[in-house]
Amino acid sequence: MTEQSCFLYRTMQLIRVCEEQLARCHARGLIHGACHTYVGEEAIATGVCWRLRPDDAVFSTHRGHGHALAKGMPPFALIAELFGREPGCSHGRGGSMHLFSPEIGMMGASGIVGPCILQAAGAAYSFQLFGGDRVAVAFFGDGAVNNGAFHEGLNMASIWKLPAVFVCENNQFATEVPFQYAAGNPDVASRAAAYGMPGIQVDGNDVLAVAEAAEEAIRRARSGGGPTLLECKTYRTRAHAEGMGDYTYRTREEVAAWRERCPIRRFRAGLITSGEATEAELDAIDAGIREEIRKAGEEAERAHWPRAEAAAAHVYAARSRAHAPEPVVDSSPRPPISLAAATLEALDYEMERNPRIFVLGEGIGARGGNFGTTAGLFAKYGAARLRDTPISERGFTGLACGAAMAGARPVVDFMFIDFLNDAFGEIVNQIAKMQYMSSGRLKMPVLLRGCIGIGHSAATHHSGSYHSIYSHIPGLRVVVPSTPYDAKGLFTHALRCDDPVLFLEPRELMSTKGAVPAEPYEIEFGKARVVREGRQATVAAIGPMVQRAAAAAEALAGEGVSVEVLDPRTVSPLDTPAILASLHKTGRLLIVDEAFGPCGIGAEIAAQAADAGFNDLDAPIRRLNGAFAPTPYSPTLEAAVTPPVDRIVAAIRALIEE
Amino acid sequence: MAIEITVPRLGWSMEEGVFSAWLKRDGEPVRMGEPLFAVESDKVTMDFESLDSGILHIPYDAPQPGDVVAPGQRLGYLLMEGEPAPEAMSIPAARAETVARPGKAPVTPRARRTAGELDVDTAALRGSGKGGRVREIDVREAFARKTEAPPPVESVPVSPLRRTIAARMMRSRENTAPVTLTRRVDATEIVRLRKQWKLRGETPPAYTDIVMKLAAVALQDHPLLAGRWEEDRIVLAQGIHVGIAVDTPHGLLVPVIRDVPALSLEQLAARSRQLIAAAQSRRITAADLEGAVFTITNLGAIGVEAFTPIIQFPETAVLGMGTIRWEVVAEGNGVLATREQMMLSLTFDHRVIDGAPAARFLRTLAALFGSPYAHCGR
Ligand SMILES: Cc1ncc(C[n+]2csc(CCOP(=O)(O)OP(=O)(O)O)c2C)c(N)n1
Ligand SMILES: [Mg+2]
Asked: Does domain B93-148 have CATH number 4.10.320?
């Protein structure tokens, strides 16, 4: 038996035996959640992984057991994970749909259909950026090809000639919806033409055909020939998930017919016919595998449970460095610079010293960004590191996710944060959760930046402030700077920390100038700045409201009213101790945020203050927010939806009179 | 659907009323037209009949008897059998204050904490916040009031003499019916009289001495002014002993010159100089401060023109002397002349004598001012 035949037979059989064992375990109640088996489709993962190296990356789906095993995951790590045990590949954090083993290039399975395509493109982007010949593979079902991620991912992979292989496991159903019904063009391979890449269709139940086609695609990717779409036609012969009914949408006869086309039986027959192996040899392999799986299952049943204290570990990267204190502003006297220039300075400096940083965005290349956020960098660092993108916000955000998983530090420049909402799922489901799901084995240094705030008659799709929404999500850091000095320090920190950061720049402040030290420095997240000290009331102001709150405090100072203004600078993490300390001093708290009031960061601050600062309160906690309405265009309407200085003054006064 | 029971408007002008009572119990079935609750407005309590039928539900945050309520404010609900209560529908913020329990001012958490630290009883405080809410500042101020020494004021101890004066003044105020009359008199002749003494190289009598002498003459024609009210009778004076108000460093003293009609002006002047000196040095005897039937007080030297002197109880009258000054006086034939004029202020006890007879005393005295010589020989 050749090495290849041995790998192909052994791997397919291992997957099959393991899946059948898992199906039994599911019936016995050992598996607590979903269990999607790969029975009938073993040839695909096996054939593709045959030519993959451990340093190549695989991005998988809800039906990922086969991918994990083919990529080299020991059955025990898989079974233990489904049993919810601590030695499982995701330490019990994931289960069937979230299998992580980045050490062997199993970059994770996803419970969301689609993102794996973008993540594979992203990893391929990193591999291309770093040089070398590593390849990224996405496995996905026929259900994923009608998803935007497929379109955006394949298009980007094509235009940038990324070393990726997109493997569609067309088992003809998405749950119970037939692909024939769901696809305008049910020929998946032919869709490759739409993106300008080769599209190959193979019999997914013929492991040699899959291996051959995959080998060719992998070779093309390694040698800089770009991506390939590989459609493997197959059929799953068990239900969509264990415990689900199977014969409402397909017949027993159809399933039985496909069982007859079992890829393992077929390959085995070939081996025997060609004389490469005997029945006895193959039976011995089968017996060995059965024993291995039985043992793995027993061991997994005995494996210990994760400790409850670990439930919220790895949400953020461990802090690795001590931080130098913030420098004094006038340490290097020079003319004031704008907020945009301050972040540009930080970005330039970090890009120079860290080749893993690259920028994605529309018009951020030669044009230098809509707000000049990358001005001059294209000439210095080139197209690969200042990558103009198609208008595929979801796509390049998902790509950034995969790039970070593979070791790069992507900076995604959205211009306006409104556009980032198109990528909500990639941020919330993928980027934010990846460190946790991988139990800290993957770092996610993704910097997502864009402008927030009302002004310039930008109207409702260029004026959003969504910091509150993102501060609700564990795993994200949310920064809202209000001065050039803060912006530079916070941006530098964002480029050095290992967590995903949303850097939300108030558009109305982009050109305001301030003193900024020329040397690089970091401002730690979660450290509020006291903008102005006072005794009678605390105003916590967010982003564009900081200046207005300071102006209000100044106006009141003229009347002898002493107001303290705090700029949290980051809304996640929130410097609750600083807010409480100020409240302890003043007894009154007003939160001014241009964003919508309900469920906003102001509500969070108020709740924390009412909880931990209850005995300090000498008045109710108040919020002042923008109107609960989309941003209108006309200047008179626009002015009416954002809190002006005089309303802040009135709110403070009212608070002091309470 | 739960039916809301709200405070009805009692007449067009009703802004608020006081909730008096429920006339049904929580959970009790109510039929349309049955009396349901009572509200008081403009001091009239009215029973209100239910507009619907149902089971009365009184929420925990409903107004209590005695609470101020506004028309439209929700009092409770009528529910159908088995219908769940729409619990704790929040009262509109604007109303919340009017619903605040009387007597129980809300205290902010910070004020409560501070009160604990400073041991201040918040129940006794009047809050400076909205709706009387007790705030930190109220607690701190209460604490300051509690601990602070009274603010330092400059004070002068009350001497026994001062106390006596005070008592006598109050006795006069409480026991007389004082009326003050003022009258301008021509002082030209008494000024000349004094000048003559000076020209002779003799120490002239004080104006007070001269006026005392003339007043004593006038009192003989108007004895009631030297009388004493004794409820059932007025006791007339046996001798015209006249007090003279003396401003001493210790306070007012009134030495008495006895039997003034019996003294020549020279004797009188000598006696008064002697008594005044004794008073100033506080060596005067009690006997010299007793027995006056009339008193003269002179503020003219300090520039006062007219005033309302206070009667030295139990005397009946006191005569105040104003300053003497040149004034232009129209004479009968239209000629203007300059004369030295003085204002006399007579305060008398109206119980003893009426205004007109008192005025006549002043007229007599004015006449004596015109020709003092007969009484002011040496
Ligand atoms: C974005 C998204 N939508 C819906 C689902 C629910 N879901 C889980 S598996 C599945 C069918 C996926 O079909 P396919 O991609 O063909 O994979 P297969 O199960 O056939 O292997 C669906 C709809 C999901 N996980 N993600
Ligand atoms: Mg499918």
From this structure: yes
Contact B110 A657 (CB under 8 A): no
Residue B221: the pLDDT is: 92
Per-residue pLDDT of A565-578, as tens digits, reads 999 999 999 999 99
Nearest CA in chain A to B139: A618
* pLDDT, average across residues A47-72: 98
In three-state form (DSSP H/G/I as H, E/B as E, the rest C), the secondary structure along chain B is CCEEEECCCCCCCCCCEEEEEECCCCCCEECCCCEEEEEEECCEEEEEECCCCEEEECCCCCCCCCCEECCCCEEEEEECCCCCCCCCCCCCHHHHHHHCCCCCCCECHHHHHHHHHHCCCHHHCCCCCHHHCECHHHHHHHHHHHHCCCCCCCCCCCCHHHHHHHHHHHHHHHHCCEEEEEEEEECHHHHHHHHHHHHCCCCCCCHHHHHHHHHHHHHHHCHHHHCEECCCCEECCCCCCEEECEEECCEEECCEECCHHHCCHHHHHHHHHHHHHHHHCCCCCHHHHCCCCEEEEECHHHCCCCCCCCCCCCCCEEEEECCCEEEEEECCCCCEEEEEEEEEEEEEECCCCCHHHHHHHHHHHHHHHHCCHHHCCC
Which residues neighbour ligand 2 (ion) by CB within 5 Å?
A: A 141-142, 171, 174
Query: Does residue A619 belong to the interface with chain B, where contact is any CB pair within 8 Å?
Result: yes
User: Which one of B97, B107, B108, B140 would you mutate to disrupt binding with A, by most A Cβ within 10 Å of its Cβ?
Assistant: B108
Nearest-Cα distance to chain A for B147, in Å, is: 23
pLDDT band at B378 (very low <50, low <70, confident <90, very high): low
Inter-chain residue contact B110 with A616, CB threshold 8 Å:
yes
Query: What CATH number does the domain located at A529-657 have?
Result: 3.40.50.920
Q: Give pLDDT, residue B52.
A: 86
Instruction: List residues in chain B touching A: CB distance below 8 A.
Output: 108-113, 129-130, 133, 135-137
Ligand 1 center–CA A17 separation, angstroms: 24
B46-105, pLDDT tens digit by residue?
788 888 889 998 887 788 888 888 888 889 999 988 887 775 443 333 333 333 444 567
Q: Which two tokens stand for residue A200?
A: 């190959």
Do domains A3-300 and A529-657 share one topology? The answer is yes
Which of A16-30, A314-328, A371-385, B312-326 is the least confident region?
A314-328
Q: What is the pLDDT of residue B154?
A: 84
- Closest-CA residue, ligand 1 atom 21, reads A141
pLDDT recorded at residue B96: 38
Query: Which class would CATH give B3-79?
Result: mainly beta
**Interchain contact, A615 vs B113, CB within 8 Å:** yes
> Is A658 within 8 Å of chain B by CB?
yes
CATH topology for A3-300? Rossmann fold (3.40.50)
List A462, A467, A472, A584, catalytic entry: A462
Distance from CA of B108 to the nearest CA of A (A): 5
Higher pLDDT among residues B125 and A493, named by residue? A493
Q: What is the pLDDT of residues A234-267, one digit of tens each?
A: 999 999 999 998 889 999 999 999 999 999 999 9
Residue-range domain boundaries for chain B: 3-79, 93-148, 162-374
ipTM for the assembly: 0.72
Among the CATH numbers 3.90.1150.10, 1.10.3210.10, 1.10.3720.10, 3.40.50.970, which is that of A337-514? 3.40.50.970
| For range A46-62, the mean pLDDT | 97
Structure tokens of A650? 């009135």
Ligand 2 centre and the CA of A47: distance in Å?
Answer: 18
**Do A615 and B129 count as a contact with CB atoms less than 8 A apart?**
no
> Which CATH number describes the domain made up of B162-374?
3.30.559.10
Domain boundaries, chain A: 3-300, 337-514, 529-657
